[in-house]
Amino acid sequence: MFPSYQTDRRCCGLDVSPRSASVSGWSQIDLPRKYFASGTNFQTAGNWLGNRAPDSGDDVFLLSDDAVYLSNTTFLNSLTIEEGNSLDVEDEILFTLNDLNLIARPGATGSNLSLSADSTGLVSVGRDLNIAGGNLYLNGNEVAVGNELNFSDVDTRKPAVFGHGELRVFNQINGLSDFFATAGQTLEVINSGGNQSIEVGRLLASTSGNLTFSDFDEVEMQGGTTLFIGPNRTATFSNLDTAPFLSQPEYPAINFNGTPGNPTLLILTGANNKIKANVDVNAYARVQGTATWENATVDLDAATDIL
User: Fold this and answer.
1) For residue 293, what pLDDT is reported?
2) Which of 8, 164, 196, 211 is 20 to 30 A distant from 28 in Cα terms?
3) How far apart are CA 209 and CA 188, in angstroms?
């Protein structure tokens, strides 16, 4: 699922690490694997090993502890961002024909590892978006994933999605991630492939923020999950395809599956909270507050606490 590569960047007897670029004297060498050497601008040729900026046929690696930004529309074959690096698409467009990877280093201290974009920026991933212990930031923009979105932990670090905008996935979502919506905005995760489920960790929408999961068969919340819905806000799960386990197929099921000592907690604050979903709360869950359950069935097991 996640790619592997040689961290010392040696091939064919050559040292192709960024450190070697300063003494190599190479000029305009079109290497199929492009390594960022230093600097901040992705499009500046001199910032790359071989003194040539990447193009659509290149596998690209940001490995040198840099904060990098795009200054133009960029087409790549694949992109790997390793821990300690960040890429800001800004208001540009980033296309990868194949995978885009955010990969944390085992044993590292959890330094910067992120991909972000501004409101009119676009990130389009041709195949898989793999987030291993990294962070994806949306600022009103869209991130479109042509195949799978894969989340995984590295050591104790969990992947997370922050901000507001649209995260659209055309195939399945694997693994567990946290989702945090910006105050006053909506973070929407959209299933464009049909008949898929998503597992979520922490879900946080501030008192004026919204989290929306659209077109999923099922949204499953793991033990320790907190779904916070602010006053007069709505958590909406909409446009569900018909599925046999639902009594009202226009809404998905939300399963709260806690464990002893690690309950799932649903917090509803303020008035006029509305939940549009079929809710199945298993043992070791706590529901705090009140809400209007619209067009929904609510199944609370005996071990559920209503606080």
Assistant:
1) 62
2) 8
3) 11
Per-residue DSSP letters for 82-146? ETT-EEE-TTSEEEESS-EEEEPPTT------EEE--TT-EEEESS-EEEES-EEEEEEEEEEES
Closest CA to 92 of 75, 77, 112: 75
Question: CA–CA separation, 168 vs 153, rounded Å?
Answer: 21
Q: Which range has the top average pLDDT, 7-16, 226-235, 237-246? A: 226-235
Q: Cα 181 to chain center, whole Å?
A: 12
- Six token digits for residue 45: 């040729």
Answer yes or no: is pLDDT of 235 > 60. yes
Q: What is the DSSP string of 152-214?
A: E-BTTB--EEEEEEEEEESS-EESEEEEEEPTTSEEEEEE-SSS-EEEEEEEEE-TT-EEEEE
Dihedrals phi, psi of 19, to nearest 5 degrees: -60, -35
pLDDT at 241: 41
Span between the terminal Cα atoms of the chain, in Å: 42
Whole-angstrom Cα distance, residue 94 to residue 51? Answer: 21
Least confident of 2-16, 103-117, 178-192: 2-16
Nearest to 59 by CA among 81, 84, 34, 42: 34
Q: What are phi and psi of 231, to 5 degrees?
A: -55, 130
> How many other CB atoms are found less than 10 A from the CB of residue 188?
20
The residue among 6 and 187 whose pLDDT is bigger is 187
Interval 281-296: pLDDT, tens: 655 566 666 666 665 5
Res 238: pLDDT: 59
Sheet (strand 59-62) strand order: 33-35, 59-62, 78-82, 100-103, 129-132, 149-152, 173-174
